[in-house]
Structures are given as structure tokens and as C-alpha cells.
Amino acid sequence: MSRLVEFSTDDGGTVVVEVASAAGSLVTRGGDHAGEHSGVFARAQQTFERALAHVRPAVQGVIDELLSLENRPDEVSVEFGIDLHAEAGAFIASASTASNFKVRLTWNKPSPPT
């Protein structure tokens, strides 16, 4: 079963996200809403931006390492999933015990002769 969780934003707005049910307590805002994903509408314990800030060091680390290559690529693309949870915030999603990043490096010009 999933729940709808409302994250407040730093600018005073809100973002509603469907999240998987997890053990732990949520601050509910009105109980069960029939027909709305069969879930409880709850308020997250932190802002949307603060939840996403949890993944920033990992993302920045991957980008920094790829851009520090001796033969620096012209383009870097990193793809990954983010799980959002009302209590834990955000973290890099994985279907197993290892996190996965899909990385694409592109060189548009030929390497200089050696």
C-alpha cells in the first residue's frame, strides 16, 4: 500500500508525493481518503529541499570524480533514482543492496595526438 505525503517547500509551497508505506509514525492530515491511491495523506517531517539535500553529496561526488578524469569528457550524464520517505527524507534508490548509477561520458572531438 502507498501513502500520499505532503512535503512543504522552503518558499512556503507544498509538493505531494506518493510513497511506499513504511514502519514508523507519520503526522496524518485527515485520515484515509477513499479513492486516492488507498493511502493516508500525511505531512513529511522535513521540507522537500531538505529531504533532497541528503543525496546531494553522493551526486556531487560522482560528478566531481567523472569531471576530474585526465581525458575529460565533453559531456557527462548520470542517471539514478531517488526514493522519498516521510521520515527518512530522500536517498538513492536501489533494487538490491548496491546502488546503481547509469553513467554516460561523451567525447565530441578527437583526442590530441600523443
Produce the secondary structure layout.
Elements: E1 2-8, E2 14-20, E3 27-32, E4 40-43, H1 48-53, H2 56-67, E5 75-79, E6 82-85, E7 89-92, E8 102-106
Protein name: Trypsin-co-occurring domain-containing protein
Pfam family, one: Trypco1
Domain Trypsin-co-occurring: 8-109
Structure description:
With 114 residues, this protein is of the alpha+beta class. The protein has one domain. The protein is 16% helix and 37% strand. It contains two helices and eight strands; from the N terminus they run E-E-E-E-H-H-E-E-E-E. The chain has helices at 48-53, 56-67, and strands spanning 2-8, 14-20, 27-32, 40-43, 75-79, 82-85, 89-92, 102-106. It has a four-stranded mixed beta sheet, with no helix packed on it. Strands 5-8 form a two-stranded antiparallel sheet. Strand 6 (82-85) and strand 7 form a beta hairpin. The longest helix is centred in the middle third of the chain and has 12 residues, at 56-67. Residues 23-38 have low confidence and may be disordered. Residues 8-109 form the Trypsin-co-occurring domain. This is Trypsin-co-occurring domain-containing protein. It comes from Paenarthrobacter nitroguajacolicus (Arthrobacter nitroguajacolicus).
